Amino acid sequence: MSETSSRVAIVTGASGGIGAAVAERLAGDGFAVVVNYAGSAGAAEALVRRIDKTGGRAVAAQADVSDPAAVARMFETAETDFGGVDVLVNNAGIMGLATIAESNDALFDRHIAVNLKGTFNTLREAARRLRSGGRIVNISSSVTTLLQPTYGVYAATKAAVEAMTSVLTKELRGRNITVNAIAPGPTATKLFLDGKPQELIDRLAKAAPLERLGQPDDIAAAVSFLAGPDGAWVNGQTIRANGGIV
Fold it and tell me: Does 151 participate in catalysis according to the annotation?
């Protein structure tokens, strides 16, 4: 039996993009995976089938992370189906861009609800439920350092996630649970690509010294490291998996 074969991971926002890549990677690493989704049931179920076909174990769990009751039910699903929770990957998020002057209340409130309150909701459940030896990986963003125009609201929510990462690390002293964040740079996902002109995408792809966009598998590899045995001594850190863009 592998070291991770009896371990269980919840991946939020896992129906596509980085979340789906993370879910598949962790399943390949031997974790039973709870594939969380908000509205894309078909994509989540298709991912579960792909994992099952390759010999992994997975279940889809619908939950809007901004709803604390739904988050609690998602953790209960993991406990009922797989016996407990060892790893939480906080990937669910939204990104809408506007200058601060042009950001309306709806844009601000939705970012706070999903990116900040959603992460808080899952961290709170994880702090109460994760087994000894557990791992929490929050997905932040390198915009917290780049701080480009139009990213004000989004960057603010991700900076708050990094702050909670550091605080929770200290609050879980004695539990043998690590808490870290990964801050991707420009990554070729629907969230990043939608609405951007090709010229901007090309310019961002060249911005990092490695001269390409990140791929979801690049971020999944970093999550795999933090969730696996080799990441046990990394705690309270934000890892900027961004090809050197900042």
Answer: no
Q: Which residue has the higher pLDDT, 44 or 2?
A: 44
Q: How far apart are CA 229 and CA 178, in angstroms?
A: 12
CA distances from 87 to 40, 135, 192 (A): 22, 5, 26
Say what the pLDDT of residue 117 is.
98
Local structure of 7: helix, strand or coil: coil
Instruction: Quote the mean pLDDT of the chain.
Output: 95
What structural domains and CATH numbers belong to the chain? 8-186+217-239 (3.40.50.720)
Which one of 31, 82, 120, 154 is the catalytic residue? 154
**Termini Cα distance of the chain:** 40
Pairing mode of beta strands 238-239, 57-62: unpaired
Contacts of 122 (CB under 8 A, 6+ apart): 10, 12, 65, 71, 88, 90
**Half-sphere exposure in the Cβ direction for 10 (13 Å, CA):** 36
Q: How far apart are CA 67 and CA 86, in angstroms?
A: 22
CB 121 within 8 A of CB 170: no
Give the angle 199-181-228 at the CA atoms, nearest 5°: 115
Burial string for 12-44 (b: 16+ CB within 10 Å, else e) reads bbbbbbbbbbbbbbbbebbbbbbbbbbebeebb
With cut-offs at 50, 70 and 90, classify the pLDDT of residue 5: low
- Select from 184, 185, 191, 190 the least CA-distant residue to 207: 185
